[in-house]
C-alpha cells in the first residue's frame, strides 16, 4: 500500500480539532468578481479519456479545489495560472512564470463553484490550444445524491468509505474519508460526510485522485474572466447548445471570428476543427446525444 504523502499526513493534524465544513449561502454576483482568499488548496490529479473511440487518448492534468468557510472553487491548475497572470499578479516576473507553467493548455475549461445549497458551473462551448470560442455560459444545479456503502479501503494511507451516485449519465464510485472533515471533492462531487479522496466513473474514463493538501493561508482566486458569461436555465440547455455548436463548428467559428477563408484553406481549417471536436468528445458528463 502506498504510504500517505507527507503534506496530507501533516495536514491531518490541522483538522484534528475541526468539525465538518459546510458552506454558507452567497450569491453568484458577490462570489468571485473581486479576488477572494481561500484557506485550503487540495490538488487532484485527473486521468481521462479524451475520445472514447481512441483507447490511446488518455491525458493527465492537475486540478485543484480551493476551500474557505463560505464556498469552494474547482478549476484546472493551468487555467488558474493564466487567470492569476491576467487578473491578480502585477509583478512582470511572476506573470511570466505563471504563463510558462500554463503553456501546455488545458482540456478542462470549466470552473465549478459550490456554496451551501447549489453548484454553479462556468464553461465554454468550445476550446482548444489554437482557438477558443470565448462563448461562455453558467448554470446552477443541486448537489448530487449519494448512496453510501459499508465497503472501506485505504487510499494513500487514508481510511475511505465507498459511495456511488449518478451524474451526467454516468455512474460514479467515490471513496471519501471522514479523517478530513470537508464535505467536498473535485468537480461537482460534494455532499458526503468527508473529503472525496478518489472518484471515477464505472468505465474509468475519468478518474480523480487526491495528491496534495496545503494550508494556503491567503490564496487568491477570481472568476473575473467569467463574469460576462450568460446564464442558462439548466445544464441540459448548456449541453444542447454545446452539441449544436460542435455540429457546425466551422461555420460557427468563422462567423464568430469574422474570418473569411479561401477555397484552398477552408477544407484544411474545417478538418482541423472537426479533429479538435473529436479529440474532446468524451465529455465528463454525457448528454443524450453522446
From TrEMBL:
InterPro entries the record matches: GLPGLI (IPR005901)
Superkingdom field: Bacteria
Pfam families attached to this UniProt entry: Porph_ging
Descriptive protein name: GLPGLI family protein
Organism of origin: Sphingobacterium populi
Amino acid at each position: 500500500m502506498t504510504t500517505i504523502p507527507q503534506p496530507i499526513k501533516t495536514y491531518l493534524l490541522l483538522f484534528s480539532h475541526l468539525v465538518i465544513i459546510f458552506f454558507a449561502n452567497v450569491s453568484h454576483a458577490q462570489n468571485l468578481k473581486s479576488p477572494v482568499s481561500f484557506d485550503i488548496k487540495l490538488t487532484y490529479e485527473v486521468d481521462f479519456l479524451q475520445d472514447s473511440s481512441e483507447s490511446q487518448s488518455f491525458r493527465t492534468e492537475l486540478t485543484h479545489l480551493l476551500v474557505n468557510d463560505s464556498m469552494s472553487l474547482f478549476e484546472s491548475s493551468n487555467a488558474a495560472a493564466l487567470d492569476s497572470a491576467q487578473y491578480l499578479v502585477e509583478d512582470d516576473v511572476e506573470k511570466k512564470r505563471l504563463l510558462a507553467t500554463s503553456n501546455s493548455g488545458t482540456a478542462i475549461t470549466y470552473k465549478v463553484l459550490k456554496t451551501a445549497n447549489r453548484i454553479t458551473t462556468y464553461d465554454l462551448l468550445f476550446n482548444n490550444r489554437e482557438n477558443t470560442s470565448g462563448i461562455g455560459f453558467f448554470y446552477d444545479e443541486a448537489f448530487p445524491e449519494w448512496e453510501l456503502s459499508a465497503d472501506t479501503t485505504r487510499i494513500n494511507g487514508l481510511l475511505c468509505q465507498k459511495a456511488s451516485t449518478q451524474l451526467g449519465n454516468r455512474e460514479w464510485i467515490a471513496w471519501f474519508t471522514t479523517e478530513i472533515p470537508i464535505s467536498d471533492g473535485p468537480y461537482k462531487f460534494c455532499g458526503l460526510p468527508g473529503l472525496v479522496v478518489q472518484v471515477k466513473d464505472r468505465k474509468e474514463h475519468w478518474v480523480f485522485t487526491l495528491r496534495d493538501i496545503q494550508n494556503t493561508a491567503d490564496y487568491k482566486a477570481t472568476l473575473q474572466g467569467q463574469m460576462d458569461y450568460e446564464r442558462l436555465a439548466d445544464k441540459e440547455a448548456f449541453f444542447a447548445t454545446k452539441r449544436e455548436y460542435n455540429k457546425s463548428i466551422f461555420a460557427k467559428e468563422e462567423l464568430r471570428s469574422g474570418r473569411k477563408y479561401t477555397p484552398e484553406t477552408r477544407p484544411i481549417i474545417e478538418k482541423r476543427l472537426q479533429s479538435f471536436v473529436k479529440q474532446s468528445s468524451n465529455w465528463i458528463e454525457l448528454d443524450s446525444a453522446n
